[in-house]
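ESCALATION

Customer reports they have been waiting on this structure for their group meeting. Please prioritize. Original submission:
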Amino acid sequence: MKKKANIINKIYKNRKIFISDLQNFATQLEVFISKIDNNKKEENLKYPLRDFFKKTFYKNNAINTRDNFDFVIHDDKTDKSNVAVIIETKTPNSIEMITEQNIDAKSMYQVLLYYLQERIINKNNDIKHIVITNFYEWFIFDAGDFENLFYENKELTKQFDTWHRNEKTSSSTKLFYNEIAPKYIKQVEHLLEYTYVDIKNINTKINGIDSKPAKPLIDLYKIFSPEFLLKQSYINDSNTLNKEFYFELLYIIGLEERNKGGTKIIERSKKENGSLIENLISTIELEERYGEIENLDKYGDNKNEQIENIALELSILWVNRILFLKLLEAQLITYQNNNADYKFLNIETIRDYRELNKLFFAVLAEKPHNRPDNLKEKFKTIPYLNSSLFEISALERQAVRISSLTDQHKLPLFNKTVLENHYNSSLPILEYFFSFLDAYDFTSVGTGEIQEKQKNLINASVLGLIFEKINGYKEGSFFTPGYITMYICRKTIRNAIVQKFREAGYKKAHCFDDLDDLIEDRKKANKIINSIKLCDPAVGSGHFLVSALNEIIAIKSELGILQYKNGKRIKNYRAEVFNDELIITDNETDEIFSYNLSKKGNQIKEKQDLQEAIFHEKESLIENCIFGVDININSVNICRLRLWIELLKSSYYKIVETNNEISQQLETLPNIDINIKQGNSLVSKFALNGNGIQKQSNAMRKKMRLATRKYKEQIIIYKSTNDKLTKKNAEKEIDRIKKDFAKIVNPTDEDYKNLQNLRTELLNKQSQNSVLMTTEDKKIWKHKLNTLPLKIEELEKQYKKKLKTLYTHALEWRFEFPEVLDENGNFEGFDLIVGNPPYIEHK
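Update from on-call: job pushed to the front of the queue and completed.
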């Protein structure tokens, strides 16, 4: 018999709980324990137990006896609903009670009988837990284990059925307890796991938020909660949309969700002028910058549609930045042991849009010593992150900067606002937005602590889900739930890794489980896994890529090859994926690893090294293994944001010397944005076979090899530099080389060449002057102008139809992602294509 190690879901175990809830739990627990001390009769103790459950978590669940069961908790408020928890009670000193050393006791036989009756006779497959308790000690068994070890045992169920139908010597429970149950329990006792708690000496004293109640009390609270006993979902479940946050965020932006034809879509809400989009639209119109924006046709078919879509793109960009800053603020406060001095995203610090503009471009985009003198002290706690997220975008240069927005508009509070006890019925949008965000908890990984105010957790996965919906502006969208991305990534990546090892000479690797015994060289194994190339051709919010990133790190940990920067293996910690989140756990204590600085500003070296190792592991995989494409620039920006957030979760402080002064600075983020491209993955202007270079002359092949080498060099410079000028120069050089690629490689697809010829002919006809034409020539000229567009349209349809069957080769991927080019510039392909529609294995 063994105690279950991971008794609570890792994510839920580290969810913060509200002090008022914990205080109520402690009070009711103390009352219940006092009743146990004063009364030793089992029947008399059932009523206090029922009161304890009702006054803590289960006021909306029926709790009573059922048939021979001492106690059951139903999954609803009526006793006609399914039984979710079966509880067998014994007196504190009963010899029928199981112990940690021995489960060969009547109480175990009883719960087995009750479980089989409920499962087989009542056909209830909603049982969550089976509990045996003497009111002090609690043994909690997962019903899933009973399902696998008992219900799936055909011999046992046959014995039970025969006994139940009175076909044995006796149908009494005594026969079942003495002659049936012991045999089958004995067979599986070494496999049967349980959660064990003893409440007798639990410390129930709490003296406010800073009292740091004993951890056993917090753990006990979570074990008795419906999230554990009834396996209910919890608020930071990455598959669950926080509707309150989602609808109010839409409102602040200036959008609303509507149902059209059975499909939920998001449209502009024109009710309130104070929203972000309405403020932005009026500013664009007022400043008359509309005519200066390049490629207006990509934003819509008319001026109103174009301005609206420009406003949406800028709004999402700015909201992205602000949400990233909220996550950064939460991270800094956690790292600095809840030091409130690291709060900066509030109206007292950032009074208006001009201040926010300075924060974006004069603070976050600049190293501390390069910031303007008047900002150095004010924003001294904010690190430089080297993120492209805080560089002025091309659209901002052409349209408007956030500093151009007016501060005079007020937005009425949302009718179901999260803001409590607010005396104003409306607020300036910036103050409203900051107050709204401050009503939620943005901590990436909790520490199971308590909090004074009831703040629901908003993590990166939930933000991704929300932005996936917002980004389906006007046409709706589909967000792939975490349990699907986890499953697809786990299956496909592990298969791809096995294939990689086989190609590297590990011929005995027939499945993933074989690798553990075959790997001897950690460095070589890491190199093999790091060579995998994975792409999502419709990346959306980047959910698949984040799941893939986490899965690869978990795989390395499982294989024992995850290592520190110095090459030593990480032994004392394991990385696992729970609920679509990467969790690092201490092997000895089973506690989730968290990084923060002590009061002296130091970190235990082992934890410091571990944080650095995970950061650089993520950095390397994002830079070299993960790629994405989307036709929607908003999706591209959101995906980049998700990947930056994943890195931010593992950021760490390093010692830096500047002007003879030593300080601790947060590690900068690499330029990972280049791996996520905007484009249509169903369209390509180059040959689809990827081998057009073979048809070129020796001189052309030489040019291609040279261009490929230069391209890869510039990509390395772009990703690694934190110098703005160097980055800009690399970006220009990359664009120049891409144009050279287009000159070197001649398209070999016949349909494409015919299409280009027709387009050229049409352009020539459109540029001709008909004044000097003869009547006959003008007639031919007009005929061509009328018929050529139709021919082009028909050929485009044919060409696109062909591309749909070959779309994984498209979007100039040979030229966008040099990592998948061989030395001759040929497209080698990705190891995996993932996403929606359902994943495609490329190799």
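Sent to customer with the following note: The two ends are 46 Å apart (CA to CA).
Escalation resolved.
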